[in-house]
């Protein structure tokens, strides 16, 4: 399998009123053809910023640098804003957490869809409408013809997320980035949307990056998982490796925090101790050192290097590196 | 929709009553009444007392109030104490003059503000925005009469391009002559309306560009120009309709200062003269009129919003 997207040493910082914030501190990541890559981590760990950096969707206060950002072999960093715009939608599209605010309240669903369709295909308005109806049907929206004329506020959250997904599909992207697409939805709706995404990925053979803070979602959906913490990728591996042979202490903590039906009765859900570090005064060393039960002085002082455990699994941890050596 | 309309109209009635009561009470609290304008040296106190009785000024206040409101409802706005003219006739003559000045000025300012505000908001923090925004801020803090005097000095006196007084030259009645007189007060008034509107449009554009739907549009390959024209502008313009409704009372009282400085024969001059002469029936009528227009304007803008905004569109 070849790499669709290859991120090398991504660094993203924001200039804020309180000074410079280093949100992403050297992330290496790749997305292969036809796979679902999961990015998991607590809120604020840099998952969204990582993928928005790739898409070029961050505000002007953000500074993105990297050794390279290769998409289908082309370096996105060398593209102008105008060229990047051609990539967005057509090549890679992104959907977001809150379907309630993702659509223009004053435009109909039909308008949203036909606008995207006519951007990429030379078709008449009537033909675009026909395609749009078909797209709505594909994402499981009942009586799509009638729905075309309605406004976003006439849709439920789950239905809106389906609309946004269908907008993404209208672009026929090779890579779909789904940033916590179900976090704002009810549990039953969550499962439906995830099923839909999985089905679409299978039917269309596209690659997907699925961002979530929910390990349970990851297990169901992904081929590979990357664990992020404090703007750093602490571990990555296949689903089996991450779930059955987690290496990094933080990954293990994350796994322990999944609610499991068989043990919920009588035992308490384990939260991870401590709070994520503030990005304003980040420790020089391992970002999870302050919350790690095994941390040594070295962990606080020095950023750990990457240790590989298999062709697909690696982690950043001094303790693991020492053990391997 | 009809039900909503009727409901809103009924809600406006108590407000109107309140406005008339307020105006009447406030004016009656003033240490002065209709008699003082009529008293002459030749009258004896007995004469004065008799006249008071005849004019009903000795009746209890509520009775006087009801008499006045009844008159208003029948279209009898009363008489000016000073000129002895019929107020309704005066208004019919003055209001069109004011509208001729305010309507073009407000329309110009409104359209200009939309263009400038959208540009400034779209190019936030660039030099274009800084130019537009800081000019608007300065404009906001400069009083209208000062701009008017400046214009009079430069364009009227120094360059002698335009007349600085009135609406027509004596004996002239042509449209050209009107336009010639119109230019300066129109320009001053437009400049007066502009800054507030520009800043309003700009800030609402900036807010809209921070909305999530803009990011989503970008993620699907929209250029920011397309986003501005097809998505943001609609969201910016919708609340502007509210502004339009609120501007309705300006058709009467929007140009008091400008009219006074340029001696434009509109409501503004009529009103300020009445205040100066304590011509209280005129003051009351103008106050009630502009108060009613505020209510009517709000009503109109609410209805327009209800018709246009799909989120509150009713009766579907
Ligand atoms: N526009 C911004 N300005 C300043 N800091 C930001 C901005 N966006 C994100 N950040 C910072 O980047 C960090 C990572 O954010 P994000 O990627 O959204 O986290 P998550 O993993 O929850 O998606 C956050 O801690 C936040 O403080
Ligand atoms: Mg996020």
Question: Which features does this protein show?
Answer:
heterodimer; A: 325 residues; alpha/beta; Rossmann fold; five-stranded antiparallel beta sheet; globular; B: 316 residues; mainly alpha; MetI-like fold; 2 domains; 14 helices; binds adenosine-5'-diphosphate; binds magnesium ion
Please sum up the structure shown.
The complex is a heterodimer of chains A (325) and B (316). Chain A is α/β, with parallel strands linked by helices and 325 residues long.
Element string of chain A (H = helix, E = strand):
EEEHEEEHEHHHHEHEHEEHHHHEEH
The secondary structure category of chain B is mainly alpha
What global shape of chain A is seen?
globular
Classify the secondary structure makeup of chain A into a structural class. alpha/beta
Per CATH, the architecture of the largest domain in chain B is Orthogonal Bundle
Give the helix level of chain B as a range of percent: over 70%
First-last Cα distance of chain B? 9 Å
The percent range for strand residues of chain A is 15-25%
Give the oligomeric state.
Answer: heterodimer
Helix content of chain A: 25-40%
For this structure, what is the CATH class of the largest domain in chain B? Answer: Mainly Alpha
What would the CATH topology of the largest domain in chain B be? MetI-like fold
Provide the residue-averaged pLDDT of chain B.
87
- In total, the number of strands of chain A is 13
By DSSP (H or I, 4+ residues per run), the number of helices of chain A equals 13
Number of strands of chain B: 0
CATH architecture descriptor name of chain A: 3-Layer(aba) Sandwich
What gross morphology of chain B would you assign? globular
- Span from first to last CA of chain A? 30 Å
Q: Detail the poorly predicted runs of chain A.
A: none
């Amino acid at each position: 399998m070849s790499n669709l997207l290859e991120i090398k040493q991504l660094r993203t910082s924001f200039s804020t009123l309180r000074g410079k914030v280093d949100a992403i501190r050297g992330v290496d990541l790749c997305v292969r053809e036809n796979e679902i890559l999961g990015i998991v981590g607590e809120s604020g760990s840099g998952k969204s910023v990582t993928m928005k950096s790739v898409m070029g969707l961050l505000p002007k206060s953000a500074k993105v640098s990297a050794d390279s950002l290769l998409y289908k072999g082309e370096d996105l960093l060398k593209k102008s804003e105008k060229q990047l715009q051609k990539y967005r939608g057509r090549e890679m599209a992104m959907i977001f957490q809150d379907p309630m605010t993702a659509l223009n309240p004053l435009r109909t669903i039909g308008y949203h869809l036909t606008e995207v369709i006519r951007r990429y295909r030379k078709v008449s308005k009537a033909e675009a409408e026909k395609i749009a109806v078909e797209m709505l049907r594909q994402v499981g929206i009942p009586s799509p013809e009638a729905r075309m004329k309605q406004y976003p506020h006439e849709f439920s959250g789950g239905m809106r997320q389906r609309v946004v997904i269908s907008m993404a599909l209208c672009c026929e992207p090779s890579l779909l980035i789904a940033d916590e697409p179900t976090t704002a939805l009810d549990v039953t709706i969550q499962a439906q949307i995830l099923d839909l995404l999985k089905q679409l990925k299978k039917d269309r053979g596209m690659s997907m990056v699925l961002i979530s803070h929910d390990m349970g979602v990851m297990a169901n959906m992904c081929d590979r998982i990357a664990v992020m913490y404090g703007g750093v990728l602490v571990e990555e591996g296949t689903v089996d490796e991450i779930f059955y042979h987690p290496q990094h202490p933080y990954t293990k903590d994350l796994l322990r925090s999944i609610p499991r039906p068989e043990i919920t009765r009588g035992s308490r859900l384990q939260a991870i101790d401590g709070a994520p570090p503030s990005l304003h005064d980040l420790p020089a060393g391992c970002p999870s050192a302050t919350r790690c039960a095994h941390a040594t002085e070295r962990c606080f002082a020095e950023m750990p290097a990457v240790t590989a455990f298999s062709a697909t699994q690696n982690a950043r941890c001094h303790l693991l590196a020492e053990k391997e050596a | 929709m009809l039900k909503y309309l009727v409901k809103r109209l009924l809600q406006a009635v108590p407000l109107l009553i309140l406005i008339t009561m307020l105006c009447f009470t406030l004016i009656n609290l003033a240490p002065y009444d209709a008699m003082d304008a009529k008293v002459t040296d030749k009258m004896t106190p007995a004469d004065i007392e008799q006249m008071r009785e005849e004019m009903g000024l000795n009746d209890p206040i509520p009775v006087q109030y009801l008499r006045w409101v009844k008159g208003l409802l029948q279209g009898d706005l009363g008489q000016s104490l000073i000129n002895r003219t019929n107020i309704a006739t005066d208004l019919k003559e003055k209001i069109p003059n004011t509208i001729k000045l305010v309507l073009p000025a407000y329309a110009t300012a409104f359209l200009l503000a939309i263009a400038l505000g959208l540009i400034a908001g779209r190019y936030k923090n660039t030099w274009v925005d800084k130019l537009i925004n800081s000019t608007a801020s300065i404009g906001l803090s400069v009083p209208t009469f000062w701009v008017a005097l400046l214009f009079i000095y430069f364009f009227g006196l120094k360059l002698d391009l335009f007349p600085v007084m009135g609406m027509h030259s004596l004996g002239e009645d042509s449209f050209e002559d009107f336009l010639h007189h119109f230019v300066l007060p129109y320009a001053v008034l437009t400049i007066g309306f502009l800054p507030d509107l520009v800043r309003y449009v700009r800030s609402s554009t900036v807010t809209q560009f921070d909305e999530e739907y803009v990011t989503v549009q970008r993620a699907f390959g929209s250029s920011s120009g397309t986003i501005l024209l097809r998505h943001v502008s609609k969201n910016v313009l919708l609340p502007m309709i509210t502004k339009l409704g609120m501007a309705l009372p300006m058709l009467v009282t929007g140009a008091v200062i400008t009219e006074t400085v340029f001696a434009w024969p509109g409501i503004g001059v009529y009103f300020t003269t009445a205040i100066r002469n304590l011509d209280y029936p005129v003051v009351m009528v103008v106050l009630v009129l502009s108060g009613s227009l505020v209510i009517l304007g709000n009503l109109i803008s609410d209805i327009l919003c209800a018709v246009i905004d799909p989120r509150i569109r009713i009766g579907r």
